[in-house]
Amino acid sequence: MSFPRKTHWTREVTAELDGKEVTVAGWVWEVRDLGGVKFIVIRDREGFIQVTAKKGVTPDPVWNIIPTLGKEDAVVVKGVVKASRIARAGVEIYPEELHVVAKSKPLPLDIWGNVETDLDTRLTYRSIDLKRPENSFIFRVESEVLRGIRETLYNHGFIEVFTPKIIVTSTEGGAELFTVQYFERIAYLAQSPQLYKEELTASLERVFEIAPAYRAEKHNTNYHLNEFISVDIEEAFANYMDVMGILEDVIVNVYDRVNKYFGGELRKNNIEVRIPKKPFKKITYDEALDILEKRGLKVNWGDDVPKAGMEILSEEIGEPFFIIHFPTDLRAFYTKPLDQDPKISESFDLVINGLEIASGSSRIHEKEMLIEALRKRGLNPDNFASHLMVYDYGMPPHAGWGMGLYRLMMVLLKRENIREVVLYPRDRFRIEP
Ligand code: AMO
User: Fold this and answer.
1) For labeling, which of 78, 108, 128, 249 is most exposed (least CB within 10 Å)?
2) CA distance 352 to 356
């Protein structure tokens, strides 16, 4: 099949191109037939463009094909740009060639916004569901968010790394691991790159990784999945305060970029992206418990702040904020206790709109102390031999955090269910498509 190649995204066809020849490609959104004039609205990833055919002007082969077009047929149109006061976008294309490169059957769900489809059905037909512009928009934004994250981290001297996802030791607690039959032995899917990223601070100093993490949690909530993208950093010669500063920069840059590139589209969908101000407010775990008690929610010292508590705190504070100094026993073994009060730790969570977006800490960098911390949690140091070895050879003080990309997308785009911001979500009941 021969057809001309796309020269412009629909969004790039503007009135300034008046009189120029372009080729666009996409899918038939709608056809309006007014007899002597026929309109085809074509959608591509970036938007829409109107193609206007006129009897006696448009070449016959093109004119004759238009009545056979169906919604979602894939087409390539070559034609001349015409600035127009009537067309919705102020511009239209007068077609010279129209190639139908694939026909479409009627869709199993409505992408035109006339009928709302429940999320479960949408996910079953996810690739079709993504033809709806409001849905594909999420993933255009996500890509820009990733660019913003990477840009900020590169500016801070971090380099991107990849660590294994098939592992043999647990990092965040044994109960949540998926097992993998790895030839003759049992291995696990990584819950987090935690130990590797810490080890890498002894050579590469500042590393980040953006990769899937796997958790065999049986949660069935709107903000947990069994596979999610974790944005992880680890920095040598730094503590929790330093890496909180980097997290603030990441968040502010992401909000700024999304506002800059997608502000118009967001406003159309009534989504306001308020760029948070640095430094973010920090409250201690103890202060958080006090606030919650005053608001009628009693959390016992040593327990995690429940989701309802995070929501109350967000109501009180409004902006993104950190909870710092969690009880040491509440955090993973690698978390560094405060020198002056070892019951509490140099740890933090970032909370936005009542949702935990990231968590991190200073880490223990002395071997004996780390072994002690493993033992205290009932873990066998022998199982961590290859990790502990690194601590014999100049392990620098270090700190880092892990941020859930999808949680960030939820709060950024004000979505209630994490599944909406994931292309092909994996939860306890769904591993297809
Ligand atoms: P934590 O377990 O808090 O910390 O995870 C870090 C962040 O990842 C996101 N997250 C999830 N997102 C979707 N579904 C899940 N099931 C899920 N679990 C976690 C959250 C969370 O804040 N190693 C540490 C990080 C560190 O200290 O560097 C860790 O994994 O947004």
Assistant:
1) 108
2) 7
